[in-house]
Structures are given as structure tokens and as C-alpha cells.
Amino acid sequence: MMFDRILVLCTGNICRSPVAAALLTQRFPDKQVSSAGLGALVGEGAEPTARRLADADGLDLSSHVARQVDEAMLQSADLILVMSDGQRRSVAERYPAATGKTMLFTRWIEENEVPDPYRKSQSAFEHVHQLLVKAADAWVDKMPGR
Predict the structure, then answer these.
(1) Which residue in 27, 52, 78, 116 is the catalytic one?
(2) How many domains does the chain have?
(3) Crossing angle for the helix pair 122-142 and 48-56, nearest 10 degrees?
């Protein structure tokens, strides 16, 4: 199975999924990577702390605008990456056909989930950013068609 269209989901689509999508785009420039939220803060830009950490890694989130996931996005994605088991269940409830192509972003590392840093400390954002980088790096060796 080729994963050419990757959709990364989190809750608000302003902290984790935009950074994760940018990391995957950086690592897989030939893939179409996008992000959305299960409870998106529609129209908002990337959270400032997440954006600063992303900038430091050479990622540009300046044009990011949060959007709510919809059935068309779930249907068109070849691979859907989520931050938690709860989000994986939520995708399955909303669009059962997506269940088999929905995985944890952290699938290939020891940590099970990426905690939501929204409205938390700088250190919480730094921890989450490190997890996202580690998980994105782990996908490099696991992505079919590389």
C-alpha cells in the first residue's frame, strides 16, 4: 500500500497536528501531507509556542490555518495519523471506513500518545515537540514506497 496522502489529526489543529504535518512534509517531500482537528479552533493560526519551536527546526507554520476534519478528508487520505487512542476511536465512530488506515503518530516509538500541550507550560510544549520529532523520524524507515 502506498501512502501518498497523509492526514494528521489532533484536537484543535493548532499545536500538535500542524507541527507533525510539517515534520512529515520535511521528511517526505513527495507526499501530500495535511492536518486538521477533531474539534478544531477553525481559522486560528498555529499556537505561538508550537510555532516558535517549529521555526527553530526550520519548519514554517506561518500560513497554517486550523480546519475541522470532515468525511471527505478522511475518505481521501491513504493514512490518517492521530495523537491518541481516543482520537483513533473518534475517527472510527465518525467514519468507520477509515478505521483500518488510522494509526497513532507514535506507532513506532515507545510513547503511546502525544499529550495535548494547549494552555500548558513551555516545557510541556518542548516535550511534545521532541515527541513529534522522534515519531516523525521513526516513520522515515517505516513508510512504504521509500
Answers:
(1) 116
(2) 1
(3) 50
Q: What is the DSSP string of 64-93?
A: ----B--HHHHHH-SEEEESSHHHHHHHHH
What's the confidence (pLDDT) of residue 35? 98
* The one catalytic residue among 4, 5, 10, 85: 10
**Catalytic annotation present for 15:** no
Residue 16's domain comprises: 5-142
Q: Distance (Å, rounded) from C-alpha 125 to C-alpha 120?
A: 7
User: What pLDDT digit, counting tens, does each position of 57-78 carry?
Assistant: 999 999 999 999 999 999 999 9
> Counting beta carbons within 10 angstroms of the beta carbon of residue 145, is it exposed (0 to 12), middle (13 to 18) or buried (19 or more)?
exposed
**Does the annotation mark 16 as catalytic?**
yes
Whole-number Å distance between alpha carbons of 116 and 46: 14
The pTM of the whole model exceeds 0.90: yes
Catalytic residue chosen out of the listed positions 4, 15, 16, 85? 16
Q: What is the CATH number of the domain that holds 110?
A: 3.40.50.2300
10 assigned to active site: yes
Residue 28 DSSP SS3? coil
Nearest-5° Cα angle at 77, 137 to 60: 50
